[in-house]
Amino acid sequence: MSKNIESGETLLRVEHLCQYFGFNKAVDDVSFDIKKGEVFGLVGESGCGKTTTGRTIIKLYDATDGDVYFKGTRIVAGTRTYFERIKNAKREYGEKIVAAAGNDVEIAKLKAELAEIINECKALIKKARHDTKNCDREYSDKLVAALKEEYLPKLAAMPDGEVKNTVTKEYKAKLHKAKRTKLVTNIQMIFQDPIASLDPRMTVKEIISEGLIIQGEKDKAVIEERVCEMLELVGLVREHAGRYPHEFSGGQRQRIGIARSIIMNPELIIADEPVSALDVSIQAQVINLLNELREKFGLTILFIAHDLSVVKYFSDRIGVMYFGKMVELASSDELFAHPLHPYTKSLLSAIPLPDPIHEKKRKRIVYNFLESHDYTVDKPTMREISPNHFVYCNNAEFAAYQKELEGGES
Description:
The chain is an alpha/beta fold. It is 50% helix and 19% strand. The protein contains 14 helices and twelve strands. The strands form two sheets. It has an eight-stranded mixed beta sheet, sandwiched between helices. A four-stranded antiparallel beta sheet has the order 2-1-4-5. Strand 11 and strand 12 (389-393) form a beta hairpin. Helix 6 crosses helix 7 and helix 7 runs parallel beside helix 8 (280-297). The longest helix is centred in the first third of the chain and has 54 residues, at 104-157.
């Protein structure tokens, strides 16, 4: 597995993503991108916003703000920034208009400027809502147009007969699927709790094939064969297709969840702590399975976890989250060799090793946000400390981190 993907096509791009639930900022101004074929690890303690980030990307939640681009198409667009800009402009220009009382020319000018800002923001809001709502339909329309371009000239040139009937049947089946295909279908999710994510009243066959049926597959023989193929691919057997989720162990249930995702031929998989509910030996099996599937299908994976030892083994790059913020982002090797943010150091110090001598000497670093940072005046932003190594810091911390990095490399 390649450990340093520094170039290539960007499959997913997240820009200033925010997901607020009332006053709770679950995800706050998070930005990153994932290259095609890469495993991007997203780590942090429970409640830091990892899972919410993944669920917002796949559109299970409506984003509060920010944008998500998949294969160059905007699939998620929040509108909070535009509404806040309108609100702030009304307040600012209202004060200016009051101050300009009696000067009709100046007031007219200010009102015109305010109207221009409001109209611009309303246009951006309309575009954001349009992109979020219509990205799947537009993708489907492109697939339909491509099929028509491929099949219609071919069918027009064919003489009537059995061959033409077969091709026509094939064309109609593909057209039916294309009309029901969504862009977001190319992103699939493996959920954290394997038993909670599987319907107990559905058989394994029904669970795995549900996506195919929704997409428009009607041929029962094709569905049967695809389900059995997926079961064997994830280490189960054909006989398991008729059983129910409660008849399986935790590791087997997670394999069923993986099969349900893979059967849709996705380009990106969001794996939300897929091994945290499993025994250590089963964790290794599931991680190895994901690695094999990645190599076989060329998958790109957003791997969400809090176990840094697993993430180091599996990921090409790692993003560290704390209280909804991305605080550090670097390649896996770089992050473990030169952690800079105090929270990252705290996480790394918590990794246990099967060595009693090392464990006796291991010092646990405790991270306290208020003690570690002073952001009262000098505000932090995400900055590149060294090539492709980003840390959330202010000016003073930026200088200190650069000095620390230079000292560590010398």
